[in-house]
UniProtKB/TrEMBL annotation:
InterPro entries with a match to the protein in the record: Chalcone/stilbene_synt_C, Chalcone/stilbene_synt_N, Polyketide_synthase_type-III, Thiolase-like
Span of domain Chalcone/stilbene synthase N-terminal: 10-232
The species this protein was found in: Digitaria exilis
Active site location: 168 (acyl-thioester intermediate)
BP GO annotations: polyketide biosynthetic process
Protein name per UniProt: Chalcone synthase
Length: 443
């Protein structure tokens, strides 16, 4: 006595979720050492014994002043540097030592953020089915995802995916991948963890190498984690952001504009000064394509925004070309100011900041100059407890159905990948094309 064999269609339906993926929990963490941006040029030239390079120091000072950054957190402190003086020399073969440190520190920082995301989600870590881990410091296997799974006590059956050297687009790409996993595997609960410590790319200043000076002014260390799943269990899980669409767009002929390379001395990167303009020139087209795919006509100022704050000038260009009102990018600017550019991790901090701002607004408190009241901030430094109350927000599906748009945002990614994240419904779009239907603006 058996039931009639299921059709392929029935099997397929049973395997997949009914509803859209949603962010069900968020956590962030930073290393304990905090560096004020105003003090950084003095600190950096002192610890690298480079005080004599006065022109470069003046340049770093100019960039720091214009960076929109107030402070950053760093794993590499003076004590660690004293134990590894060769880290200041780009030519010294220090990769092994850097990878040794990063292999332990990167997953540990991720575990701090993930533990908070799991607590925020409200279910046990053993119920996580998939893990996506993104870092630019992973130059070894077994890699950080395995160590993180072990630190958190995840199930041995958890499906692990490692994104290496994705840099800033690791955040958006991880969210997109998590959406696809969650919607295609009924009951899946995906832990996304992005974790970066800039130690792998720390060097002393060098004439003729302006990229290094820029990186020294921009990058900070941190980890962000989210839990993604569809069909939330009522009274246990709550959707913070629903994900309606995810896409990625690559601007052709930009291969040389942002690059990273591991060599015997660590990681070297190049960031072209064209980046802010490239993103500004192409952002509107990416947005229109993303919203067309949803059949939605959006007014940019009707949306909310979660852009990866790669640099102050990037936010300025996007704000200008889209004609965004003051304050629309406040969450991104706040995260840039308080943490710097933490690569793929940063957009998770922006989502957390948006949530915090909504909670503050809901409580009727006011913002001063676009800033939320003092951050007891929901994020963790080291193992400190998070003092923030958990906001209780629920998504409404109006946007996904093409009615009035209440929200959307864009984590930005290097060399042109864009992910749009909506307020109530969260829109994540993923498009890749070598032959775009309309010309791209490349300069
Ligand atoms: C795409 C992604 O989002 C992925 C990433 O996160 S990768 C990192 C992306 N970030 C960036 O590309 C940085 C964006 N740039 C900025 O935010 C700003 O240009 C900045 C803060 C660096 C400078 O501010 P600004 O308003 O442009 O000031 P400006 O006076 O024009 O420039 C200051 C100095 O920065 C230098 N500079 C600007 N961009 C540079 C770059 N990419 N590389 C090296 N130096 C750079 C300028 O040459 C200038 O040097 P001098 O003072 O010696 O002339």
């Amino acid at each position: 006595m058996g039931s009639a064999p299921a059709t392929v269609g029935e099997i397929r339906r049973a395997q997949r979720a009914d509803g859209p993926a949603a962010v069900l929990g968020i956590g962030t963490a930073n290393p304990p050492t905090c560096m004020a941006q105003d003090d950084y040029p003095d600190y950096y030239f002192r610890v690298t014994n480079s005080e004599h390079l006065t022109d470069l120091k003046a340049k770093l000072t100019r960039i720091c002043k214009k960076s929109g950054i107030r402070q950053r957190y760093m794993h590499l402190n003076e004590e660690l540097l004293a134990a590894h003086p060769d880290f200041t020399d780009r030519k010294s073969p220090s990769l092994d030592a850097r990878v040794d440190i990063a292999s332990a520190a990167v997953p540990e920082l991720a575990a701090s953020a993930a533990a908070k995301a799991i607590a925020d989600w409200g279910r046990p870590a053993t119920e996580i089915t998939h893990l996506i881990f993104s870092t630019y410091s992973g130059a070894r296997a077994p890699s950080g995802d395995r160590r993180l799974a072990s630190l958190l006590g995840l199930s041995p059956t958890v499906s692990r995916t490692m994104l290496n050297l994705h840099g800033c687009y690791g955040g958006g790409r991880s969210l997109q991948l998590a959406k696809e996993l969650a919607e295609n595997n009924r009951g899946a609960r995906v832990l996304v963890a992005c974790s970066e410590i800039s130690l792998i790319a720390f060097y002393g200043p060098e004439g003729g190498c302006p990229d290094n000076i820029l990186g020294q002014a921009l990058f900070g260390d941190g980890s962000g984690a989210v839990i993604i799943g569809a069909d939330p269990v009522s009274n246990v899980e709550r959707p913070l952001f629903e994900m309606a669409l995810a896409s990625q767009t690559t601007i052709p002929d930009t291969e040389d504009d942002i690059s990273m390379e591991i060599n015997k001395g660590g990681m070297e990167y190049h960031i072209s000064n064209k980046v802010p303009r490239l993103l500004g020139c192409n952002v509107e087209r990416c947005l229109i394509d993303a919203f067309d795919a949803l059949g939605v006509r959006a007014k940019w100022n009707d949306l909310f925004w979660a852009i990866h704050p790669g640099g102050r000038a990037i936010l300025d260009h996007i704000e200008e070309v889209l004609g965004l009102d003051d304050g629309k990018l406040a969450a991104s600017r706040h995260v840039l100011s308080e943490f710097g550019n933490m690569s793929g991790t940063t957009v998770i901090f922006v989502l957390d900041e948006l949530r915090r701002r909504r909670a503050v607004k809901k409580e009727g408190r006011h913002y001063r100059n676009g800033e939320a009241p003092a951050a007891g901030s929901g994020h963790q430094r080291g193992n400190a407890e998070c003092p923030m109350p958990r906001p209780r927000l629920r998504a409404s599906p109006s946007h996904a159905h093409g009615k009035q748009q209440s929200a959307a945002g864009l984590p930005y990614v290097p060399s042109a990948s864009v992910d749009a994240i909506g307020d109530d419904p969260l829109v994540v779009v993923h498009v890749e094309s070598d032959a775009p239907p309309r010309p791209w603006l490349a300069s």
